[in-house]
Design brief:
Blueprint: E1 2-5, H1 6-20, E2 24-28, H2 43-47, E3 52-54, H3 59-71, E4 75-79, H4 83-86, H5 90-97, H6 100-103, E5 113-115, H7 133-137, E6 143-145, H8 150-162, E7 167-169, E8 179-182, E9 194-197, E10 202-206, H9 210-223, E11 228-232, E12 235-237, H10 241-251, E13 253-261, H11 266-278, E14 281-287, H12 296-300, H13 306-317
Parallel strand pairs: 2-3, 2-4, 4-5, 5-7, 6-7, 10-11, 10-13, 13-14
Antiparallel strand pairs: 1-8, 6-12, 9-11
Helix pairs in contact: 1-8, 3-5, 9-13, 10-11
């Protein structure tokens, strides 16, 4: 076990995969100097500019090159800096990477990991603060991951590179400096959620940085005698239906919390599935359908606080 940040864990995961397989390459803007968050720190110095490739400022070109590399037998890690910028290269993801295996009968595979940092980034405004996990969950042919801890960012990134299909890998921009213990021998199983806190009265499902607010709310609620089962979904697609629905059947209540806009967010899929399978009582908490503001006061309107989560739980569990 070693103590490291979320960014250091990611860099170590890529390093280990590059050491194990010469076909693993990295490409994107500023990766040579370690990436804007330090998530590639030291890799170009270790593996050279032919494997850690600085690219022009063109997301369509970066993603297109990644798809071509993957089809040619490489395993590229494609850096988008922030998810908002990936919108400039959507065709390469939606119509090329996601569909190739299906359209050509499995003759081509695209084992590409596209890193798209998500979420509210303090004082970064509407074009640098979005969460689009539900967009990519809607896209057949891709895996969608949202690691919340340094351990998961290490283990899940390695699993993503090994899975053989295109992976949309969404790290939260506000988590890069978060520290935690990382065990290099601990594997991750994609599609498996993690029960962070066992409980009996209500199921609380979340992912990515929003789990911090959920954990703070759960600590408050525990002092009040309210027993919450907190689940870190981790994999948005394929999501762990069994773990979530078993918990909902046990508690009879479900609250889904995410930082993304609530309207058509992935919480709606979880809620509908739980309603169909268990008939449990359901509520969602997500951001209002507004752009994220630049000023702290406006930005705060898009955040879901621990107090808001605790209030929703209290309302759902009240006699």
């Amino acid at each position: 076990m070693a103590l490291m940040t979320y960014a250091q864990a990611a860099a170590l995961a890529v390093q280990r995969e590059m050491e194990n397989d010469a076909n693993v390459v990295v490409l994107g803007e500023d990766v040579g100097r370690g990436g804007i968050f330090g998530q590639y720190q030291g890799l170009q110095q270790t593996f050279g500019a032919a494997r850690v490739i600085d690219t022009p400022i063109s997301e369509a070109a970066i993603l297109g090159a990644g798809v071509g590399m993957a089809l040619a037998g490489l395993r590229p890690v494609v850096e988008m800096r922030v998810v908002d910028f990936a919108l400039c290269g959507m065709d390469e993801i939606v119509n090329q990477a996601a569909k190739n295996r299906f359209m050509f009968g499995g003759q081509g595979r695209v084992p590409m990991v596209v890193r798209m940092p998500i979420g509210i980034w303090d004082a970064s405004a509407a074009q640098h603060s979005q969460s689009f996990e539900s967009w990519f969950a809607h896209l057949p042919g891709v895996v969608v991951l949202c690691p919340a801890t340094p351990q998961d960012n290490y283990s899940m990134l390695r699993a993503a590179l090994a899975c053989g299909d295109p992976v949309v890998y969404m790290e939260h921009k506000a988590l890069w400096g978060v520290s935690g213990e990382v065990d290099e021998t601990q594997p991750a199983t994609l599609g498996r959620a993690h029960i962070l806190r066992a409980g009996e009265q209500i199921t609380l499902v979340s992912w990515s940085k929003q789990l911090q607010a959920c954990e703070a709310a759960c600590a408050k609620l525990a002092e009040e005698g309210i027993s919450v089962e907190l689940i870190d979904l981790r994999t948005i697609w394929p999501w762990d239906r069994d773990t979530v629905l078993d918990s909902c059947a046990k508690t009879g209540k479900l609250l889904v919390v995410h930082e993304a806009v609530q309207a058509a967010g992935f919480g709606a899929e979880i809620a509908a599935s739980a309603a169909e399978a268990t008939g449990c009582r359901i509520r969602r908490l997500g951001a209002p359908r507004i752009p994220v503001g630049y000023s702290p006061v406006l930005e705060a309107q898009s955040r879901i606080s621990p107090d808001a989560i605790a209030a929703a739980v209290r309302a759902m569990t009240a006699p």
